[in-house]
Structures are given as C-alpha cells and as structure tokens.
Predict the 3D structure of the following.
Amino acid sequence: MARVILHIDLNAFFASCEEIKNPDLKEFPVAVGSTSKRGVISTANYEARKYGVHSAMPVYEALRVCPDLVLIQGDYGYYRSMSAQFFAYLKTFTHQIEPASIDECYMDYSPIAAQYSSPEAAAAYIRDSVREKFHFTVNVGISDRKVLAKMASDFQKPDKTHTLYQEEIPEKMWPLPVSTLFTCGHSSAETLRKLGILTIGDLAKTDPVILESHLKSHGRSLWKYANGIDDSVVALVPSKAKGIGNSTTLSSDALTEEDARKVLLSLCESVGQRLRSSHQLAGQVCTEIRYSDFRNVSHQMPLTVPTASPDLLLESAVSLFGELWDGTPIRLLGVRTSKLVPEDEPVQLSLFDYTTPRSEKQQKLDAALDDIRAKYGKDAVKRGSFV
C-alpha cells in the first residue's frame, strides 16, 4: 500500500492540562505562560482564542483584548508527565511513532492498517479514545508526506480529522496565507510579502532561485514544502540536538552594557551546564536581542576551539552583543550554541588558545560546580556579581 502518515496534535495542550486539574476553568478564557505583563503567552484555550489571544502574544496585549483572561503560571513538570502518558498510550497502537514536540507526533499508519477500514477510521478511533482516557482533544492530519500531514492537522480545530494528499494541495493548501506554511516564520513571511508572494500557491509557483536569493537555503525548503515535496520518514529515534541555547525575557528593560552582560553571563552558565550534561562542546555561538519595540536581531560567530566553558561562551556572546546593540532598551536576551561535537572528540589547538593546563583546570572547576549544584540545588553556588 502507499505510504500513509498521521500527524497527531494535542489541542491547546497546556491549557487542557490545567482544565483537567480544575474543570471549572473550561467556562473561562484561560492562558498559560508568564503571569507578568512583560511575559508572553505559551498557549490559550479556545474560549480565550475567541478574543484573539494566541501563543507568543505579549501578556499585556492579551489582557487588553481579553480583560477577564485567567493567567496561569505553567507547571511544565506536570505537562511533561501528561505528555509521557499520552505517548505511552499511542505506543499501544504501534511503536512506529516520532515525537515532534511535547504535544505532537507522527505515526506510521502501515503497521495498523489491517485493523481499520481506512486511515480516517483509525484517526477517529484515536481521537475518541484519547478524549475518553485523558479528557484531551486531538487533531489528526493524514497524508502521504509528513509536512502535509502536519499542515492538515493545523486545519480547523479542535477535535478534527483532515486529509491533505498530494492531489489535494491546490484546493486545500495553496489558497492559504503563506504565513501558515510549516516553518515559515514572521520574518520569512514579511520577506515574501515584499516580493508579492501572499499565498502558499504564490510561493509554490515562484522560481526557487529567486527565493534562494532572498532567503538562502530556507527559501528552497519553503518552496519544497509549498509543493508538498518531503521524502522524510517517521523516525523512531529522535535526531540529536543540533544546538543548545537559552533566552530570557527581562523583568525590566536592560539599559546598559553592564546590565546585559550580567544576563548573558547567567545564560552562558545555563547553556554551558546543559552542554556538559549532554557531553558535548559548542563550535559556534549566537547572541539574540529583542528590543523593547519587539525588533529582533541576532548574530553568530564560530569558536576557534569547541567549548562548554561559560567564560569562553560569554567572551563570544559579549563580543557579538557589542556588534549588535544599537543602544535601544532591551526586552529579551538569548544565547544559542550550535555545531556541537562530542566532548571527547580530538580538537586542534592553536598557539593563541587557552593553554592545556588552564583548560583542564577550568574543566575540573566546572565539573565540581555541576556536582555541587546537582546535590544542593542550582543556587548553592553563585558568582559574586549575582549577589
């Protein structure tokens, strides 16, 4: 039989978890995320969405459009537990499942095809049983391509099944705004808008060479997705992380380089610890800035020697910050690392790098600090500049 893939997406997952804990919340507009007006919304239930509240919306704006909005600080440990139970249940159907995030996955239909009259029948049974067992609703997208199954599951919600096979692309997908295409973010959509590309159909019919000239390799990827070109398969083993990073929305705008440096140091310590926990070293660092007017800028640079040292990560992050910052108040800062390599991979040192004794001493110090924090808590040891 031809390949069939199901994309299963939990509807408003975080908000649904909160409604399970407190069923009375179902009658109110609810959003999960930061409870600070400077924070952002992680997700909103469908009652809140009627007012225009959506994920990534600033809290102050959500309260403006929905003054009665119930804000809940996310309990992410609880959400991970519920997610694990959900995926464990799906594996009672088949182990041919690829998690895509905490609340969505791809399922290969082939192993269960003999048990159902059609993929739609399988999707209906999954939706009904998940609703009965967990009190969640899910959307199921069905296609012969992963990207199309993902797009289909994002059609009308909640608790729906949609198909999007190759032959259905012109009718069902091409009329949609280009911003709804998988991986087409705000910046890419704005670039495409300036080129007169407003719908996914416009994008599909554009010369990919033109797209590459404006969006580089991402332009061709978007063109492929717009035409339903995706040969990827349901991967049972998650691919290794391509990068490790962290970012934070500041409680008050950073106005000076010294303010920003303290935040960057905290982020580099967090990223360095996660690198060491995963036994990896970073070969590239990226600094991200979101200004108070919500403009986003970022810049990256390669490292001479891969590292997990917070001090070396900070040195590069601060250098990049100096190149980026235009003096405008800063709302968010982020540090990302990429080009990861195993910590035991041989590296070529130069005469200008840290000497080996100092490097080994720093590694032992970092390891000792990790042990102390693991045993006594992350705040057991603090830098003097944070006190």
About this structure: Residues 350-358 have pLDDT under 50 and may be disordered. Residues 56 and 107 are 28 Å apart (CA to CA). The first strand starts at residue 5 and ends at 10. The two ends are 64 Å apart (CA to CA).
